UniProtKB/TrEMBL annotation:
<feature type="transmembrane region" description="Helical">
    <location>
        <begin position="86"/>
        <end position="104"/>
    </location>
</feature>
<feature type="transmembrane region" description="Helical">
    <location>
        <begin position="216"/>
        <end position="239"/>
    </location>
</feature>
<feature type="transmembrane region" description="Helical">
    <location>
        <begin position="26"/>
        <end position="49"/>
    </location>
</feature>
<dbReference type="InterPro" id="IPR000620">
    <property type="entry name" value="EamA_dom"/>
</dbReference>
<dbReference type="InterPro" id="IPR037185">
    <property type="entry name" value="EmrE-like"/>
</dbReference>
<keyword id="KW-0812">Transmembrane</keyword>
<dbReference type="Pfam" id="PF00892">
    <property type="entry name" value="EamA"/>
</dbReference>
<keyword id="KW-0472">Membrane</keyword>
<feature type="region of interest" description="Disordered">
    <location>
        <begin position="1"/>
        <end position="21"/>
    </location>
</feature>
<feature type="domain" description="EamA">
    <location>
        <begin position="161"/>
        <end position="292"/>
    </location>
</feature>
<keyword id="KW-1003">Cell membrane</keyword>
<feature type="transmembrane region" description="Helical">
    <location>
        <begin position="251"/>
        <end position="274"/>
    </location>
</feature>
<keyword id="KW-1133">Transmembrane helix</keyword>
<feature type="transmembrane region" description="Helical">
    <location>
        <begin position="55"/>
        <end position="74"/>
    </location>
</feature>
<dbReference type="InterPro" id="IPR051258">
    <property type="entry name" value="Diverse_Substrate_Transporter"/>
</dbReference>
<comment type="similarity">
    <text>Belongs to the EamA transporter family.</text>
</comment>
<feature type="transmembrane region" description="Helical">
    <location>
        <begin position="110"/>
        <end position="130"/>
    </location>
</feature>
Length: 301
């Protein structure tokens, strides 16, 4: 059984496998696109915050404040769930914390667009494995060409540690998709997201305190941290959870390949990170692979 097949197993308590909201296919796609815009512009703001609190401090602010907001709004119940349900929450929260820690460590070393282009290999590989279609291997190969171009043919233009962090974040992103789908089916509304966010916040808290200490409590830093939490966690993760209830996880994973373009745009507008012609071509290839894989999935679905 593939990871996605496991994630889409029958869920307890009558939580629907697909939301019956109007909009057909366009609805969940619009949710994913809106999520991508929010999370990447939030990531650009987070880069501006890093000199104040450090990469790990920003992750802690993002997860802790997002958890506070979600717990206050959702007020999730904690009784009536089994061991498998809580295991899913632990896995989902761990994936969220790991994904954020690694991508923030990466974006503090290499441009945001490059970091997300490397990170998106995780979801793309997941979509290929889960779909079991040879045509998607071609699209994955096209994306890989783009990644190699981005690294200058040997990744000599990118900080090696920053690139490694981005690839690790990609693995955590794939896990986030799998366990996010499972969480959406086991818990009503956004209750599972709130609980998983709280667990991820607890995991990140010692790291943030160790790096930033009292700087986390500076009012201006807290205000920027709240903005990052809302833009990069509360809004996008809620939208993605809704989308995962209404589209197959492989299709969702493929759509994630659009995020390098959004990240590059956010890096240019917010951080003044200019792209070379080669970088733009590399990101275009990854986006083309995403679009081609989505069209193939729909044509054969």
């Amino acid at each position: 059984m593939t990871p996605v097949a496991t994630a889409t197993a029958a869920e307890p308590r009558g939580v629907p496998v697909r939301d019956k909201a109007p909009g057909g296919r366009l609805g969940p796609v619009a949710l994913v696109v809106t999520s991508g815009l929010s999370v990447q512009f939030g990531a650009a703001v987070a880069v501006l915050l890093m000199p104040r609190a450090g990469a790990l401090g920003v992750v802690t602010l993002r997860l802790v404040l997002a958890a506070v907001v979600l717990l206050a709004v959702c007020r999730p119940r904690v009784r009536g769930y089994g061991r498998a349900d809580w295991g899913t929450i632990v896995a989902f929260g761990t994936a969220m914390a790991g994904m954020n820690v690694l991508i923030y460590q990466s974006s503090s070393r290499i441009p945001l667009g490059a970091a997300v282009t490397l990170e998106v290999l995780g979801p793309l590989i997941l979509s290929v494995v889960a779909s079991r279609r040879w045509t998607n291997l071609l699209w994955a190969g096209l994306a890989l060409v783009g990644v190699v171009l981005l690294g200058g043919g040997g990744f000599d233009r990118l900080d090696p540690l920053g690139a490694a962090f981005a690839l690790g974040a990609g693995g955590m992103w794939a896990a986030y998709i799998v366990f996010g789908a499972r969480t959406g089916r086991r818990f009503p509304q956004a209750d599972g997201l709130a609980l998983a966010m709280a667990f991820g916040a607890v995991l990140s808290l010692p790291l943030g305190i160790a790096e930033a200490g009292g700087r986390l409590l500076v009012p201006s830093t807290l205000a920027l941290g709240l903005a990052v939490a809302l833009m990069s966690s509360v809004l996008p993760y809620t939208l993605e959870l809704l989308a995962l209830r209404r589209m197959p996880a492989p299709t969702f994973a493929i759509l994630m390949s659009l995020e390098p373009a959004v990240a590059a745009l956010a890096g240019f507008l917010v951080l003044s990170q200019a792209l070379s012609t080669t970088d733009a071509l590399a990101i275009t290839l990854v986006i083309a692979a995403s679009i081609g894989a989505v069209r193939t999935t729909r044509a054969k679905g």
